[in-house]
Each structure stands twice: as structure tokens, then as C-alpha cells.
Amino acid sequence: MKIKAVEGLVEALKAEGIRGVATFPTTQINNAIGADPDINIFMVRDERYAVAVADAYSRVMDGKDFGVCTVMGGVNAAGTQMAYGALAQAYEDSVPLLCLTDGVEAEAFGRTRYSIDEGFRSVTKWCGYINKPERVPEYMRRAFTKLKTGRPSPVLLQLPRDLGEYDTGEYPYAKVKGWRSMGDPKDVEKTVKAVKKAKNPIMFVGQGVFSADAASDLREFAEAAQLPVLTTLKGKSVFPEDHPLSLGVRGEPAERFLGKADMVLTVGMGHTPCHFMHKIPDSVHKKIIQVTIDESDLNTDYLVDHAIMGDAKLVLGQLKGELEKQGTVKPNEALHKEIEDTWGTMMKTYTPLMESGETPINPYRVYGDLMKVLDMEKSLVTHESGNTRDQLSAVYKSQVPHGFLGWGNVSTLGYGLGGAMGAKLAFPDWQVVSVTGDAGVGYQMGNWETMVRYEMGITTVHINNDGFGGYGPGFWGKGHSPYTYELTGHKVQSSAKVAEALGIQAERVDDPDEVEPALKRALKANASNRPYLLEFICSKHPVFPGWIR
User: Fold this and answer.
1) Binning pLDDT at 50, 70 and 90, where does residue 84 land?
2) Contact status, residue 451 vs residue 532, Cβ threshold 8 Å
3) Do you find a cis peptide bond into 228, omega within 30 degrees of 0?
4) How many CB atoms lie within 10 A of CB 331?
5) Which element (helix H / strand E) includes 97?
């Protein structure tokens, strides 16, 4: 049977189990998808959000499904250009997603000033251009093989308009398999011996554990070896933070145990520190063992004493099996007590803030009440770039995998709402909350209408403190950007009124005793598939644990 090239691309998506595509708003690919009843189009209001929704969906699916987005390309490549920042973030955060766009037609090839290939080569794992209709199956095979194999990263594929037809009998498509590798058994044996020999070993784990669908494997090995677990921001919630071995992401537990560790076993994370990640202090006097799928991660900022090259899920299973051969460790009650006491020391600073009755409302009061009202077994909270990220990553205690969506090496403002929408598509029965400050909310407003159109029960929490906390002067000092922190105050502008004008139920809250009831009202509306916005009038309180440097 002969079909058009673009129809063959849609058939390949269906064969791979793709049932939804995020987009904005025009490309030949959308028309072919829209004509097919088996794939849904999810239209946002700009190209960066199309990528962000696909990105978040991929993050929370742990390799079992992939986010796909379409943007306008070809000679008028405005859509792909707008998508660049979001793809850069996905690339930095090692997120597998497929971005589809129009390719430049053959007669214009080489004549355009802008090249999609050259522009996106640095932020994709592979950038492909389909030059003949019969190569659609080949290129889709290559794209999905790259998504499913090796280090997760975005792939961009270009399909020129009106490329022609091909015969599916001669050029069929079949779903491809991803390939994973186990670690060298000798490396595994050596690692377990090092763990058992160390006096103060810890695990430091990242998003790669999620990507390998290995959260349960991580927990089983950590418990068997009695290893404290510290996570990166992107790895937050991969290990339950109410577990007696959890060190969370940042704060006194991280500082104490990473500081005194004589052995650090890292899994699913790179060692080159970004702005939102701990350095390993006094690394030359610690044994560092790295489990990674990517050889380019090895021996970067730190000399690695030992490494296991392999998939995180398979290697964690190997480590547990080898530990059982060498002898598992009894529950270390003294260690559990030390971790608990260290958490207690940290929370002496933050619990009073989370219970504060001061006005304007302390933002930590919002976070404390949020944890009271959410179903911690079926909810996801995400942040924005800035104070909401730094505060929530410290005090919000997630209990289930993906109970928290942490993000950002390249940290693009506005991603939080895209993250929430992608998560809601993946987990429609979960409570989903996006927390933003004054910087992020400006980026989000243009996409609020999307939640109304698709009846998405998402709560947006806006911490409105009339500016950028920590940028200008305050009780914390002179600030780091004292010339660029002031905004129009809440007595003049209101995000709640903007949300209402766009069809979203919204309310402004300035009484700390109304925080919890307001959150309950929002979640009740969400349960009926209605988005809700809460504008909390808060103080500037840029206080949070730092990253170890």
C-alpha cells in the first residue's frame, strides 16, 4: 500500500505506542495527526511549552513512554527557533523526547540563511533530515532507537512538506527495542567490597535512576547495604524522603553526611557540578565510585577511583545480588538515629516558618500547609526557577517516585507549568500542583488558557511578594541584583484577576489561617477537572540551605 511520507511518520508513532503529541500550532505533521483518531493533539500557546510538556511527560514515564512534540520549521523556522531554549534544557537535563518539524524543501535546501541542523546539533542527541519518502521508516527507527538506548537526550527529526509517497510493503515499520547493558561483574564485586569496607559510605543519586525505571531497585540496594541516600535536585523523590536512610537534597543532612563520607557511590548523575548541585567536598580524600551509562561522565571534575559502566536498573540489581553473596548488612539503628537527629536540627529553622502566623504570609507556611492537604501517595509538586525551587527542594518531603518534579541545569523560567501539564497527562488521577514566584508567573500566564480548554485539574500556587526575593536589599543583606528586583505591587496588579479573566477559578489569600482552607478548595475544584489559581500575598523570605561548594 502506498501512503504519503507524513502519513508513514504518523503510522510509526502509533506503532511505538505514542498516543499524544504536544504542539503549537501549525505544521503539516499536525494535519496528518489530526486526521488520525488514534493520536491526540495537545495544543499549548507557544513552542517552548510544546517541548516542555513533552519533556515532563518523558521525565515521569521512566523510559516506558516518550513525549513527542511538533513545531513549525522549514524555510520559516520560527517555531523551531522558539523551541531552542526548551530543547537546551531537555538536553542539559538528559531527557529523551522527540521533536518533529518541517524540513526545508529540496529546492530551497542550501539557500536559507538559518540551518536547523547547525542550530540544534548542540542541544540534541541526533538531528535527522528525511530526504526521501521511503526513508521515513528508517529515520523513525533510528530516532526511537536513540531515545531508548544509551544516555537519554532529545532527538529532532525534519520532514519536508510534500515529500511524496512510498510503499509500506516494501518499506515497513516495526516497533524498535532499546538496548541496555549490565556492568562488568568484576567491577560490581569490587564496588561491593569497597562499600562494606568504608566507615561512612553514602549514595548520591540522580535522574538517571528515574530514566532507568530503577527507583525500587535503588531502595532495595540502599536498605540491604544500609547506605544513606542523597539525591540531586532532578533526582528528588526517586528515594522516599520519609525513609530513615534519606538525606533529602540539601540542608544539614546533606552537609553532614556528604562532608564526613569516606566513600561516595554515585548512580545516574554526572560529576560536573552545575549551579543547582552539590560539589563533593574534600574529594581527593574520598573514594568515589560512579555508576553511569555514559563514558563521557567519567573522570570529569573528580578522579574516579572505580566505575561501573551500565544501566542503573541492571547495575543496582547486580550490586544487590553481589551484596547478598558477600553478606547483607543489619539495620543500622544508630545511623538512622543520626540521620533523624540531623533532620531535626535542620527543621528547627524551618518548622517555625512553616507554622508562622505572620503577615504578609511567610512562603514556608504555604509549603507546610500544602503537605498537610495533599495525598502524598498520589500527588506531584513542581517548582519554578528561583526561590520556590530552593525552598521546596529543602523542606518538601516527597514519599513516592515522582512525588516531586525537580528540574534545571539550564533553568528556563516558566517550565514549571509545562512540567505540571505534562505530569497531569501522565498521571490524570493525581493531584498536581505548580508553585511559582513572581518571575515565573509572567512566563506562565500565556499558557493558563490551555488548562481551561483541556479541563486540567491543576493548582497553580503563586507566591506573590511584589518582587524578586533576594535580588534587592532586605534582612538577608544588600541582595545580589539590587537594580532589578522591584515589580508593580499587589495593590495594583493581581494574578488572580488575570486567571479569572482567562476562565480559571482563582482567589487571593492574605491571611495565613486561610492558606490550608484555600488549598483544600483548590484541590476540590481540581477533582472536578477544573484548574485553580491561588495568589498568596507573601513576604520576601529568601532563606534556604545552600549548595555545598
Assistant:
1) very high
2) no
3) no
4) 11
5) strand 97-103
